[in-house]
Amino acid sequence: MTTPKKLFIKTYGCQMNVYDSERMAEALGGQGYVETKTPDDADMILLNTCHIREKAAEKVYSELGRFKGLKAENPDLKIGVAGCVAQAEGQEIMRRQPMVDLVVGPQSYHRLPEMEAKTRAGEKALETDFPEEDKFERLKNRPKAQRGPTAFLTVQEGCDKFCAFCVVPYTRGAEVSRPAARIVDEARDLVERGVREITLLGQNVNAYHGAGPDGSDYTLAKLIWDLDKVDGLERIRFTTSHPNDMTDELIEAHGTCSKLMPYLHLPVQSGSDRILKRMNRSHTAESYLRLIERIREARPDILMSGDFIVGFPEESDADFQDTLDLVEEVNYGYAYSFKYSTRPGTPAAERAQVDPAVADDRLQRLQALITRQQRAIQDGMVGRTVSVLFEKPGRLPGQMGGKSEYLHAVHVADARVERGDIAKVRIIGAESNSLAGELL
Ligand code: 5AD
Ligand code: SF4
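^ thats the input. predicted complex w/ 5'-deoxyadenosine below
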């Protein structure tokens, strides 16, 4: 028997990259690779990169620098860069870092086996095209390994919205949705392997419009209802959404589909109409707030989450105050805020930039407000009963940890619970990043 080769994958960025890394590991599994947790003994290192903000790309270059020593010790070690930095700067990476053997963009992962063979023959391999063939189909025949209780499932990729700050339409390409039947098959397969909760992924997941059973365009809401019928699948989530694609039937599903969890990530980016317009968001702060009202009518206990950018070109103090006001009004359970980062090739890159010190200050103030809201919501969970899907042992011996329907991390000290169980838990305490509970 030949000894398996070892593959180390480091994943940056969003959940879609996590999903893609799993698919890459499976594709290379067919070439005799097994995953390893450290780069030290690897035969291949893959960095699955993110290009959404500047620092992410810089991190990749410094990480590559650190692998130089390993490559000197082991000349057979192959180093690859995947993901959105690979897509955007593939040639540049090969030039700047000659030790990189392989560069593969997000639409070309099904080519990895051939590419790996090419690197073993001593050649460089670069694939950053947007091929016609369906990478999901080509990646299908994979080993049936047992899985943990939660999984990501990509249903849609790419984006046609072209927000003025964002590289996604360029790195992931135009919106493409997978056919519903394939997604349901994949969900069934995941459930057979132990999965109880699936998060449907897409850069613009609520714009999903894959082919339905009769070949005509389907919607995310219809897909959710099909998944609702999959026995053994207990929880459905989706991320990440655009306000303009929150249709009535999707809002309604939040009130009527019991498997759909009461948590919604709905980025707004700014609370100022002037800035939203410059961002090319095609919605206003008011329309966003009204939308949330309707969502809360359908599902009053839903936990809202969002993304914000501060220091977008030309953002004034008054614009920023509008953002703070919007955050006050929504009351977020989670929110992610970022300082605007110039992305070459995007429309906003050409515009007058905000003083970085001003942007830093705004970021701190926004994050302080968001943290206060998150804490207050977590504290408010004490005394309430939630349902927890247990995923793994907690930090302390004897603890099991999992997520509530609201995506709060919850731990209990109770020997009766096992990984994969869903149980009713009473919350007895709130810590900074998790809730303590006891089984009912
Ligand atoms: N600068 C800062 N944040 C950005 N995001 C996307 N592009 C940029 C950028 N150029 C943020 C948005 C988006 C999240 C995934 O990343 O808030 O919703
Ligand atoms: Fe980027 Fe999201 Fe805007 Fe698409 S909708 S361009 S992915 S921020």
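The longest helix spans residues 356-379.
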